[in-house]
Model the fold of this input.
Amino acid sequence: MTGKGDFSRQSFLGAESEERLARLRVVIAGLGGGGSHVAQQLAHVGVGEIRLLDPDCIEPSNLNRLVGGMQDDVNARRPKVEIAQRTILGIRPWIRIVAKKKKWQEAAKLIADAHVVVGCLDGYQQRDYLEGAARRYLLPYIDVGMDVTKIADDEFAVSGQMIMTRPGGPCLQCLGFITPERLAQEENRYGDAGGNPQVVWTNGTLASLAVGALIKLVTPWFSTQDLFTWLELDGNAQTVMPSEQPRYRVLPKTCPHRGGQDGLGDPFFRNGLV
Done:
């Protein structure tokens, strides 16, 4: 036991789950609505080291969804990584935090010896790059994102996805989530409801799915050998279902998008988790 808290209510995760989580190093890229939820939940379950990457400061429009954000933070233009750090340490003061007010590319070395990378980023290109960085070090990548689309006058469809990919399995491009067409369009605007529409309950649902996928990866709670998970959220119906999209694709046995000198991973690196 770590002696750093009472985790008896999550003992079903496995006899060594507390120790495994305490040894875990997780990178969160993007500390907005999705990433701030993920950071809070990882603190609650007892992840030992959380690495926070985001170049931005909180703005008034962030208060509708950013966990831990206060009006005082807006007034002070406080960095999002500082808000997330405060939230985490308020829950578990012993968690080690590495917080960088930078784009993840400017602190990419923090990915090299991590165990899991969680991406909460806007834009397909950024997701593609971040997944590639995770694959470089043979790390699982978990992606969350939401969209709002106008379907009629004063009516909008809210949707989102949580996708987990693992080295040795299909990547976001293989699955068809990232396509040449989407990369060409480079959608840094979501839907038709204004700039990057986001709401706290959808962000929270997707973040919870991401944390659940992470816990399945690192504890013996639920044995799975799945090389990917793709869950789709229908925010209007408030349902979550496995995506049907991979069923209509021929998934390659070996990912053709991640390879070569920059995509094979480091054969001498061991993350030391188990």
